[in-house]
Every structure is written in C-alpha cells, then in structure tokens.
Amino acid sequence: MLTKRIIPCLDIKNGRTVKGVNFVDLRDAGDPVELAEIYAASGADELVFLDISATEERRKTLAELVYHVAEKVNIPFTVGGGISSVEDVDILLQNGADKVSINSSAVKNPQLINDLVAKFGSQCIVVAIDAKKIDGEWFVHLVGGKVPTELNLFDWAKEVEERGAGEILFTSMNNDGTKDGFANEALNKLSTELNIPIIASGGAGSIQHFTDTFVKGKADAALAASVFHFKEIEIIDLKRQLKKEGIPVRL
C-alpha cells in the first residue's frame, strides 16, 4: 500500500511565509528557507511553496528563492504561483523544483496542462484547484480565491486528469484556515472518481483531522500550513499517531 504523505505548505508573499483564514487576514509565519530546512529535517514527505500573490500581481514566482529553498531540502519540492508557460516551468525546474503547480493559468488555458505534460512528464505537473461550496455546489475560484467562476470542481478535476496532470491539489476555501477539518465529502468524491493522487488542503487543526481525511476523504496526501508553522502539531507526533491508527506513513 502506498504511504500517505504529509506536506507542509509555505505560502509566500513578499519573500516571507504567511498564513491567513479563508484566503484573507494574512499574518507572518517566518522565513521560507529556514522553515523548509526545518520541515525537511523533521519528517515532512514533501514541501509545497506557493507564491500566493504572483498571479494577482502579474509577476513570476521568485526563482531565486526557489533556488535557496532547494539548496536546503532533500525531499520533493513543488512550486506554484504565476506560472503560465513552458518557459516558466523550465526556469523553476532548473532552480531546483521537483514539481510545479498551476492553477488560474490552467483554467484560462487548459491546453497548458497538455503542453507541460508533453514537455516535462505528468509526474511533475500538479494542478491546484481552489473551490468554494456555494448553495450545495462546488465552484472553482481563481487568482488566490478572489475570482469566482461557474466551473464545477468535479468536472474540472476530470478534465485535468484527462489532460495528463499527475496530481490534483484541492483546497476547500470554506475550510481554509478554520482548523475545523478538511472537506472530506468532496475529497472522497474526487478520490473515488479519479485515478490520480488527490492532495487535501484547507482545514487542518488537529491530528484527528489528518486521520479523517485519509480514512473518510480517501486523500493520498494532506497539506497544512499554520498548524506546522506555529508548532501546534509536530510532524513526527502526527506520523506516529497515524501509524498507530493503521495509516501507512513513512517514519
């Protein structure tokens, strides 16, 4: 059985790690290079680094910062934010990223997924989907959750898989930063309907929430930020508890 992955997420704004609630009210969470090094040493399976304002500010991800983070870690490292071309991905991979995450640009130009997969392989292309449940339906949002669309989460996820993406990083905007648990019903549906790995994001507040997303949500990986950044949960403690509960993890 494949091990379940624990993934700290470093949301970057102006070169610093930040964390908010429901995508707003950001507060400083530390230096991303230092945090990355700590997480790599403390048992994280992967890291995700998202330059959260790159798309909104119409600039590229900070390639130099990616380079410095990659220097310090020996675990897979995904980078996203402002990526809209094959050239963008080429630069990030050359600077040490193992995978890239695309979000708004994939919705605006779905062919980009095919082009990136053709050039770099599906294993390094992650499509991030930020979605919000409104009146019982999940709708995809763009530009860091600021721009709503009429695109259905599950329809878009299926198209993403068909176009060759290797993984989906699903963030529930309703759950993000609330620490009330992941959106396990939606995650279960995604995991059941698709054949590619689903990374759960948004809502981690306790060790039980991770257990629930692996058991009830059938997620392949769980991503979190503030509970790790502010040391509310230590990764080694989390993994030991998951193992006790029969969930396969790498210790």
Could you explain the architecture of this structure?
It is a single chain. This protein is α/β, with parallel strands linked by helices. It has a single domain (about 5-245), classed as TIM Barrel, CATH 3.20.20. The chain is built from 10 helices and 12 strands. It has helices spanning about 30-40, 65-70, 85-95, 105-110, 110-120, 155-160, 185-195, 205-215, 225-230, 235-245, and strands at about 5-15, 15-20, 25-30, 45-50, 75-80, 100, 125-135, 135-140, 145-150, 165-170, 200, 220-225. The chain has an 8-stranded parallel beta barrel, surrounded by 6 helices. Helix 2 (about 65-70) links the parallel strand 4 (about 45-50) and strand 5 (about 75-80). The chain is globular, with a radius of gyration of 16 Å. The two termini are about 15 Å apart. About 50% of the residues are buried. The mean pLDDT is about 90.
Summarize the structure.
It is built from ten helices and twelve strands. The chain has 251 residues and is of the alpha/beta class. The chain has one domain (5-244): Alpha-Beta Barrel (TIM Barrel), CATH 3.20.20.70.
Tell me, rounded to a whole number, the average pLDDT. 90
How would a textbook summarize the main sheet? 8 strands, parallel, barrel
Instruction: Tell me the helix content.
Output: 25-40%
What is the second-level CATH architecture?
Alpha-Beta Barrel
Topology of this protein?
Layout: E1 5-13, E2 16-21, E3 24-30, H1 32-41, E4 47-51, H2 63-72, E5 77-80, H3 86-94, E6 99-102, H4 104-108, H5 111-120, E7 125-134, E8 137-142, E9 147-152, H6 153-162, E10 167-172, H7 184-193, E11 198-201, H8 207-215, E12 221-224, H9 226-229, H10 235-244
Parallel strand pairs: 1-4, 1-12, 4-5, 5-6, 6-7, 7-10, 10-11, 11-12
Antiparallel strand pairs: 1-2, 2-3, 7-8, 8-9
Helix pairs in contact: 1-2
